[in-house]
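Fold this sequence, please.
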Amino acid sequence: MGTPNDRVPLAERVEQLLAGGGPLPIVTAGDPVLRRASEPFDGQLEPALLARFVEALRVTMHAAPGVGLAAPQVGVGLRIAVIEDPAPVTEEVAVARGRVRQPFRVLVNPVYAPVGGERAAFFEGCLSVPGYQAVVARHAEVRLTGQDEHGRAVDEVFGGWPARIVQHETDHLDGTLYLDRAEPRSLSSHQAMAERWTQPTPEEAARALGFELP
């Protein structure tokens, strides 16, 4: 049995969210909306409302701040996510992690598949799991298919850090949190990260905390 809010039509629920103005409240782990597969987008929001919702996701992502945000993270079970990464890191970190600037993108009904068998493991966090990070081994390169906010087909290969971002956000749309894929022994508070694990790779953390990297 759903909550009363679950029974409100999606368009009406989005209108209610947007009525508050400013960044939207971010849903945190423990809310069932983060554990459900999202409904494929098929015109549930008319174009003007979709545009307003996408802009609200962008504003919320920037304010958090983060490099991606999926609709379930603001309580809307639609298969929509936004990503953007200015990559404000040192050259050493950028090279080690394959982190490059990712312009703003809207992903509608995204699905990813691995390209090759290479995996990369790095610390990762989530706006819906505040205060912590953990090492996640993900596909180093993926092919992403879906649409953009205008209904145009997307079929693109992502590598490096952008590949990690699209996997993380697409997982949200399937009801999966990064912790489901993380190495449990790597779980670290933001304070521990700042004091101990600022290195470009998690190799030192793996030795000290006792977990293996791929």
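The CA atoms of residues 99 and 161 lie 5 Å apart. The radius of gyration is 17 Å.
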